[in-house]
């Protein structure tokens, strides 16, 4: 009977290679998650636009303007129940995506800081506030899709105005805070390129000015409504640009 030989010792080089493979695999997974979180800003805009496609393009008519008559509001809501609910659904998902991007940007700005400041919390607070009101606007859309609400002219018109306010200036103003918090790091060419910093300045300024819509009459043809639309275009352009740039950074 053969006596058992000495136990084979593991090759130190094999252990080192195994550890490196494990570390690289972990880093790859972390980068993939970070890319996904960074891309959630662009996803917010895609989902928001998806809701507008249902509300304005796929229905029997466009979503009623602020100064629409009671008959126009009632006719649209009763004939486009599915489309209004789809609008609510996509804007709910957009709010969740915006929350994810706000949390990511907070972490990215905190890591980028050379010394602690109030900018990362400002970005997080602005993003959370904008997401909450976007979610509230989705709730208003869902309530408007109920036939009992649509048949009450005064209630339907009040909910219509509320949906415009919650989905318009009450989103763009806090979103300006999120954008403004990222401007210094972009102008210093650290986390974001400088051109995104200048875009952020323009988007932030117009978004803050869109608060004037709260003082204007309920009219889709007013100058303040045009300013609100410009704020949405610039704000979403910054959101998509910053989000994609940050997502690409994590591929390196």
What does this structure look like?
By secondary structure, the chain is mainly α. The protein has one domain. It has helices at residues 12-57, 70-79, 81-112, 119-144, 147-150, 153-166, 169-187, 194-209, 223-249.
Which keywords apply here?
252 residues; mainly alpha; 9 helices
- Taken in chain order, the helices and strands follow as HHHHHHHHH
Please identify the structural class as seen in this structure: mainly alpha
Apparent shape: elongated
Mean pLDDT: 86
Percent helix among the residues?
A: over 70%
Q: Give the N-terminus to C-terminus distance in angstroms.
A: 59 Å
Largest sheet: none
Number of strands: 0
The radius of gyration computed from the alpha-carbon positions, rounded to a whole number of angstroms, is: 24 Å
Helix count from the secondary structure assignment: 9
How many domains? The number is 1
Query: How much beta, percentage-wise?
Result: under 5%
Question: Low-confidence parts, pLDDT < 50 over ≥5 residues?
Answer: none
């Amino acid at each position: 009977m053969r006596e058992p030989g000495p136990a084979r010792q593991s090759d130190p080089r094999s252990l080192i290679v195994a550890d490196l493979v494990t570390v690289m695999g972990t880093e790859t997974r972390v980068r993939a998650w970070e890319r996904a979180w960074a891309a959630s800003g662009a996803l917010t805009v895609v989902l928001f636009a998806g809701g507008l496609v249902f509300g304005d393009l796929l229905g029997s008519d466009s979503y009623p303007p602020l100064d629409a008559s009671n008959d126009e509001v009632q006719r649209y809501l009763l004939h486009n129940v599915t489309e209004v609910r789809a609008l609510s659904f996509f804007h709910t998902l957009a709010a969740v995506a915006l929350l994810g991007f706000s949390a990511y940007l907070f972490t990215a700005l905190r890591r980028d800081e050379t010394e602690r400041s109030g900018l990362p919390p400002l970005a997080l607070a602005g993003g959370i506030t904008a997401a909450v009101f976007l979610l509230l606007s989705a709730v208003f859309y869902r309530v408007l899709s109920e036939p009992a609400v649509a048949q009450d002219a005064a209630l339907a018109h009040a909910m219509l105005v509320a949906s415009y306010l919650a989905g318009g200036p009450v989103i763009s103003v806090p979103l300006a805070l999120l954008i403004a918090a990222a401007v210094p790091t972009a102008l210093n060419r650290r986390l974001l390129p400088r051109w995104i910093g200048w875009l952020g300045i323009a988007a932030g300024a117009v978004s803050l000015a869109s608060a004037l819509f709260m003082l204007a009459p309920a009219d889709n043809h007013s100058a303040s409504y045009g300013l609100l639309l410009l704020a949405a275009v610039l704000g979403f352009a910054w959101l998509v640009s910053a989000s994609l740039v940050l997502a690409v950074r994590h591929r390196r």
